[in-house]
Amino acid sequence: MRITGAVLEEVGASRPYATSRPLSVGELELADPGPGEVLVRVEAAGVCHSDLSVVDGHRARPVPMLLGHEAAGRVVQRGEGVDDVAVGQRVTMTFLPRCGVCAGCRTQGRLPCAAGTASNTAGTLLSGRRALSRDGSPVHHHLGVSAFATHAVVDRASVVPVDDDVPPEVAAVLGCAVLTGGGALLNAVRPAAGESVVVVGLGGVGMSALLAAVALGRGPVIAVDALPHKLELALELGATSVHTPAEVAEQGVRGDHALECAGHPRAFETAFAATRPGGRTVTVGLPDPAALAHISPAVVTAEARTVIGSYLGSAVPARDLPRFIAWWREGRLPIDRLVTRRIHLDEINEAMDDLAEGRAVRQVVVPDA
Questions:
Q1: Which helix H or strand E contains 78, and what residues bound it?
Q2: Which residues of 311-346 are buried (b: 16+ CB within 10 A; e: fewer)?
Q3: Which of 99, 108, 103, 107 is nearest to 316 (CA)?
Q4: Residues 28 and 139 reside in one and the same domain
Q5: CA nearest neighbour of 77 among 41, 129, 127, 130
Q6: Which residues contact 163 (CB under 8 A, 6 or more apart)?
Q7: Mean pLDDT by 10 residues, the chain (369 residues)
């Protein structure tokens, strides 16, 4: 079928992207779903730093690539062997399909799936094929989803069914920001009663971690970011106190545990410095692979510290999403507040500029708008 999508044509284009326009919006061909796959009509897709990191070259991916990995939509066609999700069902799409049998899958979320990681790196679906093409040439998939488009073919393992009362924008943000930030809070930080949590970096992932910490209600929630408007929003969403990174250093701000959500080595250093003795510093951000952080091994030893990496929030989507949805229904997880603005596909380059400049928490592409 013919679809419309936003394809990254080159990596590392100069900013502003509104001028260089590394993403082009146009028609592509999308093959029918194969065995174990589904065709989804995309209703909403979040613009995430994992998209920006491909655009700016921090994450090596093949091009041309149809970007977008945090999304929701309705199933319109099922491939052979898919009988546990109905046509017409709304689904949340997630960016790490799990084969269910590898060593990583047997860790219940602690480690990523080996097969899913390999297919994501190669720009294919979990099966190893590419369902996207343009003028007869293949177009790569982004993290098994490629949702900056009107439709997407994805592996059944990349979708989680959700009820119709969950709006498309909420269902989309659940698939990456909430799973990554909230999942890391639940699965890696695991604060005990009375323990405080520091969240460093207040983009979509960091704000989701903050919301989950407030909803969990175990102890004080301390928010850290360099941008005043994000600190203001954090207070509105329930943060106990807010600080800039400079204030963390100058005032010795510390919590029992800390989450690094900015994907920058300096943010990791701030989170480590803001962790009390015996605490866990959990990093979920993905900086440039060549970037290095400086921490003291002596502090790790003397203060019995733990440093944990958490990919996709150490989450199993089918296990963890229902809990977040229940919190949203109860009014404890106001995911809607994270949506800064809704955009059309034609505004995708400008959206990358807004994300790079920190002007937005979550922009959501509505392909049919």
A1: strand 70-78
A2: bbbbbbbeebbeebbebbeeebbbbeebbbeebebe
A3: 108
A4: yes
A5: 41
A6: 90, 325
A7: 98 97 98 98 97 94 98 98 98 95 94 96 97 98 98 98 98 98 98 98 98 98 98 98 97 98 97 98 93 96 98 95 98 96 97 96 89
Judge whether 287 lies within some domain. yes
Cα–Cα distance, 151 to 65 (Å, whole number): 15
CB 42 within 8 A of CB 151: yes
Q: Do residues 361 and 34 make contact, with C-beta atoms less than 8 angstroms apart?
A: no
CA angle, residues 84, 208, 266, in degrees to nearest 5 = 125
The C-alpha atoms of residue 23 and residue 7 are separated, in whole angstroms, by 5
Query: 142 near 67, Cβ under 8 Å?
Result: yes
75 by Cβ neighbours in 10 Å (0-12 / 13-18 / 19+) ranks as buried
233 and 261, same domain (yes or no)? yes
> Structural domain tally of the chain?
2
The whole-angstrom separation of Cα 164 and Cα 104 is: 32
Report the C-alpha gap between 41 and 149 in whole angstroms: 9
pTM of the entire predicted model:
0.96
CA distance 278 to 295: 16
Tokens representing 195?
Answer: 């323990």
CB 142 within 8 A of CB 300: no
Q: What's the domain range around 98? A: 2-161+334-365
- Distance CA(23)–CA(348), nearest Å, equals 7
Q: Phi, psi (5° rounding) for residue 261?
A: -125, 15
Specify the 3-state DSSP secondary structure of 93: strand
Residue 92 lies in a domain: yes
Structure tokens at 106: 């047997």
